[in-house]
Amino acid sequence: MSHLSERPEKPAVGVSMPHESAYQHVTGTALYTDDLVQRTKDVLHAHPVQVMKAHGRITALRTAPALAVPGVVRVLTGADVPGVNDAGMKHDEPLFPDEVMFHGHAVAWVLGETLEAARLGAAAVEVEIEELPSLITLQDAIAADSYHGARPVMTHGDVDAGFADSAHVFTGEFQFSGQEHFYLETHAALAQIDENGQVFIQSSTQHPSETQEIVAHVLGVPSHEVTVQCLRMGGGFGGKEMQPHGFAAVAALGAKLTGRPVRFRLNRTQDLTMSGKRHGFHAEWKIGFDTEGRIQALEATLTADGGWSLDLSEPVLARALCHIDNTYWIPNARVAGRIAKTHTVSNTAFRGFGGPQGMLVIEDILGRCAPRLGLDPMELRERNFYRPGQGQTTPYGQPVTQPERIATVWEQVRADGGIADRKREIAAFNAAHPHTKRALAVTGVKFGISFNLTAFNQGGALVLIYKDGSVLINHGGTEMGQGLHTKMLQVAATTLGIPLHKVRLAPTRTDKVPNTSATAASSGADLNGGAIKNACEQLRERLLQVAASQLGANASDVRIVEGVARALGSDTELAWDDLVRTAYFQRVQLSAAGYYRTEGLHWDAKSFRGSPFKYFAIGAAATEVEVDGFTGAYRIRRVDIVHDVGDSLSPMIDIGQVEGGFVQGAGWLTLEDLRWDTGDGPNRGRLLTQAASTYKLPSFSEMPEEFNVHLLENATEEGAVYGSKAVGEPPLMLAFSVREALRQAAAAFGPDGVSVELASPATPEAVYWAIEAARRADAAGNGGSRSAAAGAGEVRTGAKALSGA
What we know:
Its EC number is 1.17.1.4. By secondary structure, the protein is an alpha+beta fold.
């Protein structure tokens, strides 16, 4: 076992414990960024001046009327920026734009003594624009050839030969929606200036170092004059990785110009209409199978809806391409990617970061092709799994480690879920119920862990031991409710060999740990855990030398377990507190900076080849649904999940992440339907689903009636801290089983062998139209003339009819 993964005697990791802030969460005492306003004197409030047109050039901006509003202190415009007027890492996001790029784009900000004064001031600002043509949908952009950013192509094997050797070739098209983050806490920041003119920003951000960098270049100052702290977030899901930076810069600019603290917080409607979403995608594909149903070749073009600026669209697209294989061996592949430029909000990171979009494409293909091949969908999926001992690599050239786990979790789900017996019960139920059908689908997940950009795979930590034996840890990761801080406390206590109550964790700050990566890519525990372990090991080695001198033993023979140092073969003990005090008087350094970099990664973005991931997280889920044939309404009767988290650092946290990820994925695939006004009227480009009343989120009523989650046992990951694996993003893709079950239930209303197209999200309406298409299908399995997307209101949610060649 590797040094990184080996666990000592009686570790704190692996113990089920509640979230470290759970008590504060449920009692309402947990503080978030905007709560700090009440503790700050003379705060000004910022409000955006939004232009409610999808696209236009500003011809006049008059701020004088706002300054006449009682309580308005200042109006911030581009003329006030001392540094660079840009809030993006690609320098394509002007903080104060002279061209409106989406409906609701903020072109100026008003600072007021109260939020109401700022709001009234913003309403008084006069903006004149010259309206320009706008592209709202992905189809609009594709038709107009409107793209930006990189256009990668991933190739593997000989695609033409693969199709020539295929007994069955199918082509198709698939378009699916994005997703709103809908975190509980909207974007927020509070900026203050100290007596030396230095800027301190409290920000709800997943990436404090990048927030610091953007604020510094907007203000025209070096980074050491800006400190960013993230106390905690009320949810992030990727939506606070890139997008908080400009908002924090507005608050910082206001504070710098007025000398007063400036508070910024979007209300829910502003957050929904001004911040980016998960990228919606369009896929055009061609796939070939041999006579046994094994994939021979895949050719596809994936188009991501990037919105008006690049943001993180390029790495999102790259990860989508890297995950189009999911758990399946594709010997010959050619997959191209491109990013559409539309006049909507700039789409951004969202849990899974493109991986779900790529994986959804292959799962949709297999779900549609299985009936055409005369195979049960489970059987088709199993036949195409990566297999051990075959030397198989992904389409981008990375060897697939632990391929046997794909089959292991699959078989465990089949056994735990009693799949064979339940499928027989479902067949009997369906035969007896002409207007209600049930179905059970099983899908798997193989998700690569690490940032695609190799440089981001590093983490830092600062660990301090005080004279009384208490320990304070700082690390570069941020807490958004996912339990990262809980795991880091467990890692520190385990490495030092002390009880958990001895360790406390400080808020994430850029003046404690510099140049951190975003808490994203499911790598928070790997990177920061490795750094904390490194710092604690430095401290432990120093303390072992002190303990050895006190115990009359060799340092290599001393162990610190549960806060007591002992030498092997001796009953003499030295308590932790006494050991630390002794070390202090011996002038032994009791602080350490830790560092970790993920080894073994390499990636060439131009050739789209390499090994960008440290390892793969594996999982499988079985979902049973029941569908009403009159309305398309459905319920999830049962879900069984087996997921690979290595040796869990904190099992209760990990099971919660699996459950939450699954439900969020089911929301994306079945409920959450983003809609924009695509007409040519005055509200063109307006987000129509801008509240919880029009944007349906999963809640208790959508939870599975029976929900069984098991973590794969004996699953040590040699390359990660204490043998664990990432858990944040991979479980979201387990929800593919919900969509595939709905597809199969809809097909059950038609003749055997019917291939059903299903829109995404698979709302009850979409399921109804899929049922209608199945009912009209002929015995040969050909769909009716109306596609599954018909009646969904927009072509963008639809799927092109499957065609054989």
